[in-house]
Amino acid sequence: MTGHADRTDRTADGTGGEGSAGRFGGLDRWKALGSRYALLPLRLFLGITFIYAAFDKLTDSAFFADTGTGSIGEMMTGVRDSSAIPALVDLALKNPAGFGYAIAFGELAVGIGTLVGLFGRVAALGGALISLSLWLTVSWQVNPYYLGNDLAYLMAWLPLLLAGASVLSLDRLLAERRRTR
User: Fold this and answer.
1) Three-state SS string across the chain, please?
2) Residue range 18-39: average pLDDT?
3) For residues 141 and 137, what is the distance between their CA atoms, to the nearest angstrom?
């Protein structure tokens, strides 16, 4: 039955009354569930991707070399003149291997923190800073700008930076333990 009688069965809080629980209450529950878990796919994607990127670097012997094909030194030399902040590239070129290890271990820490939800906002800030530095150096010359992936990663970190890791996270577990004490 559709009409005025169905609409009046809903409660004032919008969850649906007894006569509309299947139609309105169920939808509201799905919306609430969707809102609660909305950032979880993003957390999983960014966490797994950053862990993968870290292992990709850590297992590539050529990556940490100062020169040569596939090395961090060669890559940074190649983007130096086209980056937005050449001084940042010059800093990396003082010790390419050290910079490469810093990026790899930074990506690993950010990825693990994001994936398990430990210090979620700190991990998101780290991910945003890594993405920002890569955008301003390595992918700055990409034209048009929206084809460079580092800017998209930077934007993807912002919701996690703002919201943190609120569900299925160690942050939440620790917060609940503090509340019960």
Assistant:
1) CCCHHHHHCCCCCCCCCHHHHHHHHHHHHHHHHHHHCCCHHHHHHHHHHHHHHHHHHHCCCCCCCCCCCCCHHHHHHHHHHHCCCHHHHHHHHHCHHHHHHHHHHHHHHHHHHHHHCCCHHHHHHHHHHHHHHHHHHCCCCCCCHHHCHHHHHHHHHHHHHHHCCCCCCHHHHHHHHHHHC
2) 79
3) 8
Amino acid identity, residue 55?
Answer: F
Separation between Cα atoms, residue 123 and residue 141, nearest integer Å: 27
pLDDT in tens, 148-172: 999 999 999 999 999 999 899 999 9
Alpha carbon distance 77, 65 (integer Å): 12
Return the sign of the alpha-carbon dihedral for residues 128, 45, 35, 172: negative
Sign of CA dihedral 160, 161, 162, 167: positive
pLDDT tens-place string over residues 84-123: 999 999 999 999 999 999 999 999 999 999 999 999 999 9
Q: 55: exposed, middle or buried (C-beta count within 10 Å: 0-12, 13-18, 19+)?
A: middle
Place 176 in a pLDDT band, splitting at 50, 70 and 90: very high
